[in-house]
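Suppose you are handed a protein chain with no further information: no name, no annotation, nothing but its sequence. What can you learn? This example shows the usual starting point.
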Amino acid sequence: MNVIREILDKEEKKRISRKILEALPNWFGIKEAREEYISDCESQYFFAAEKDREAIGFLCLKQTGKDTVEVSVMGILPEFHRQGIGKELFALARQYALEKGFSFMQVKTVQMGCYDIYDDTNKFYKSLGFKEFEVFPTLWDEWNPCQIYVMYLG
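A reasonable first move is to predict its three-dimensional structure. Written in structure tokens, the prediction is:
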């Protein structure tokens, strides 16, 4: 049985995020970007999914405005993909954001149609109820147009 809990300890956040992100090179293969995600996790709301007391996935929420949080990074170990763990993490994070008084949630990913693995990511966020907001063609770089999705939490 999976357990999802909030992690408060900065070192534990770094350890879990490093373990998961290093296991996902198709999404987090650029070392500098991966290290930035890991470092940023320290100061964010952090939820971990565990099986047999071992982290198998995580999700971070970053406050981006008075009323808004962003799913800044999330990852599930490959052997646990497509088992509902991401949806479980998201459900807890959404509830947490509501309880903290946030009204909106956003997430950024590579625009649909650029890469198959990111098409799956886009479909996942849409399945959670996120709506397309805007595309920034060069926010990251010209090969990775940034799709922003938003969700009203109320």
